[in-house]
Amino acid sequence: MKMNKKLTNFTHMQTEAYSTKSNLNLKLQPWQITGLTDGEGGFYCSILKTDSGVATQGFRVKLEFKIVQKSHSVNVLENINNYFSCGSVVIDNRKTDTKKYHVTSISDILNIIIPHFETYPCLTSKFLNFNDWKKIAFILKNKEHLTEDGLQKIRNISKKMNTGRSFEDKYEYLKKSLNVDTNGNVNFKLPEHWIQTFIDGEGMFYNYIYENKQQNRIIIDSSLEIAQGNHDVFILLAIKNFFDGGYIKPKYNVNSIDECKESRSVNRFILRDSNKIVEFVNKFPMLTQKQLDFLDWKTIVELKNNGSHKSPEGFNLIKEIKARMNTKRN
Fold first, then answer.
1. Single residue among 115, 138, 165 that ends a domain in this structure
2. DSSP class of residue 78?
3. Whether 235 contacts 269, CB under 8 Å
4. Does 204 lie in the same domain as 155?
5. Does residue 234 belong to any structural domain of this protein?
6. Is 50 exceeded by the pLDDT of residue 2?
7. How many domains does the chain have?
8. What is the mean pLDDT of the chain?
9. Mean pLDDT of the region 28-48
10. 89 and 153 part of one domain
């Protein structure tokens, strides 16, 4: 049991080292902002009833840009706030214990948020939502929303955004923007900082543990997995190109929109090359509490590589570490 205690202390030291290292006042890079948006952000338009005046036909138009995080990772939202020097960090949903960085000021949207995403555009199909959102922002700027025709124009645009956007629009846009050829190869290089924060939003560090008692073998498969709606499968292919490895699950002809629509609604990029994963995340650490999952994941990989999983103490430690990762982490 000595080894168990020693290794347990080691993993606790890793966690302590990370948790006491404040990520507040971290200077974010532009592509990190966009990666977080592609993963956990969005562009929204609400048309709300109001009693104020006839000029607005009894309605008020509200635009919002937001990025959401669990409360334990609020520091990254504060850093986004510092980056843009506008907006605020507020409670998003008490039930899910989430907070959001958001901007609703039309002046800040026009002068700060839109210019950022024109220079560092979303790389998923969220770009389409941004583009429509931008159109509405300029309608508001030009006061067209104060007319019946202008308000109807906003309605027509907003109803096709987000969940109202068709599968075909998202699929075909991404296929074109990432320059996918007839063989299904993506000819687009993703920025490293975008990859970093997109993993932070959409990735997961997994350890699958199998105990084959008949063969007296313990199998540990460690992987990085990134999930996306099947309409954005091409971004997963671009990530596969970036890492020069891994595969997409389920397997089908991605150039066939019919096969894509009939595949699982959520597709996954799976990378099992632990050396590539460790090398990348060591260089570009996660900005949220997901870094703790990576550190635990890396410890399990190291325990497996040095054969510790073959002893009862080592195997029990691996199970103990795995039990506190991802959704089970406080």
1. 165
2. H
3. no
4. no
5. yes
6. no
7. 2
8. 91
9. 96
10. yes
pLDDT band at 213 (very low <50, low <70, confident <90, very high): confident
Q: Name, in order, each residue with C-beta under 8 angstroms of 306's C-beta and a sequence gap of 6 or more.
A: none
Q: Are 57 and 151 within 8 A, CB to CB?
A: yes
Tell me which residue range forms the domain holding 110: 30-165
For residue 49, the surrounding DSSP H or E stretch is strand 41-49
Assess whether 220 and 92 both reside in one domain.
no
Report how far residue 77's alpha carbon sits from residue 25's, in angstroms, rounded to the nearest whole number: 11
Q: Are residues 200 and 263 in the same domain?
A: yes
Pairwise CA distance, residues 199 & 307, whole Å = 29
Lowest mean pLDDT among 3-12, 140-149, 169-178, 292-301: 3-12
Which tens digit of pLDDT belongs to each residue from 237-280? 999 999 999 999 999 999 999 999 999 999 999 999 999 999 99
pLDDT at 14: 53
Q: CB atoms < 10 A from the CB of 102, how many?
A: 21
Same domain for 105 and 126? yes
What CATH number does residue 55 fall under?
3.10.28.10
With tokens 């290794």, the residue in question is 7
Round to whole Å and give the CA distance between 259 and 184. Answer: 13
- 285/63 Cα distance (integer angstroms): 32
CA distance linking residue 109 with residue 86, whole number of Å: 9
Rounded to an integer, what distance in angstroms lies between the CA atom of residue 289 and that of residue 19?
8
